[in-house]
Amino acid sequence: MIDRRTFVGLTAALLGNAPLRARAQANAPAKIGFLGNANPTTGASQLESFRRGLRETGRVEGRDFTFVFRWADGDPDRLTTLVAELVAAKVDVIVLSGPLAMRAARDLTRTMPIVFVVLNDPVPMGFAQSLARPGGNMTGMASQYDELITKQLQLLKETLPALTRIAILRHSQASVSIQTKAESSAKSLGLAARILTVANVADLEGAFKQARNERVGAVHVLPSPYLGANRAPLIALASRFRLPAFYELRLYVEDGGLMSYGPNLDDLYGRAATYVDRILKGADPATMAIEQPGRFELVINRKTAAALGLTIPPSVLQRADEVIG
Asked: Per-residue DSSP letters for 210-277?
């Protein structure tokens, strides 16, 4: 039996050691799980922007944090396994992008902090209670795609004044609400829309053949991490079938796509780094408001336009934030 004096002494020793243990844990580098939809090459720009954002908070890689990387390599079926591996690695926070990765994370953990970058509203998809107060273990950056689609189609129609029919290309696991909004926006502009759904890269050629056979004048690509990760064959097919294609993100245009209008994805990842910093300092994702981008950019590839035999109207060129080529 432990007498009172011994018990008090042991308790004092344990309490005295508690701050030491806390300091030791605090001094250990945080583990940041980074889940990319593509691969280290295709996703290099976003990763570097995220790294730069962490440096700007004063954090030094290796000293203050280490990365645990997982890459889906353009295969959405791998996301659940990859998220499970990050959870098993007991990282302090997971950074990921897109509804499919977010859904996998939600199914696997309701406690581990998640910072996301998503190109549509996470509230109707069930990932947050509200933008101001997410209420769970997820927060991050979300673009207001529903407000962009009409602007994108207006720009496309202004670029191609004779346009009457468009193909709307979507991934099979993309939100139906985005498709519905795209169809209604097209109709409001007097455009007949044909929905083309692809489940994998092998479906892309068939979709473009169908677009050509149905004599559509352009293709509008709906936002999708899967399509973004596999953008090279998509851009090549648009060129091969001589179909002008419009995208949300500039990374398509940098790789040879015709036009894009939307947020800068690199900027979103840079901002996501500040969320990770706050979480590592003790902030609760449930109370961290989801941030929406305040700036959108129009990017045009003049070389691609020339290859398609298109002349971009001066009114569109003058509004471009950047003209490539």
From this structure: HHHHTT-SEEEEPP-HHHHHTHHHHHHHHHHTT--EEESSHHHHHTT-SEEEE--HHHHHHHHHHHHH
CA pair distance 45, 36, nearest whole angstrom: 11
Q: Minimal CA–CA distance to 94: which of 29, 50, 34?
A: 34
Task: Give pLDDT tens digits for 258-317.
Answer: 999 999 999 999 999 999 999 999 999 999 999 999 899 999 999 999 999 999 999 999
The domain of 185 spans 145-262+297-324
Number of domains in the chain: 2
Verify that 139 and 40 share a domain, yes or no.
yes
Segment 48-60, tens digit of pLDDT: 999 999 999 999 9
pTM confidence score: 0.87
Contact between 72 and 78 (Cβ < 8 Å) = yes
Task: Tell me whether residue 2 is in a domain.
Answer: no
Question: Are 94 and 210 part of one and the same domain?
Answer: no
Give the DSSP H or E segment for 298: strand 297-301
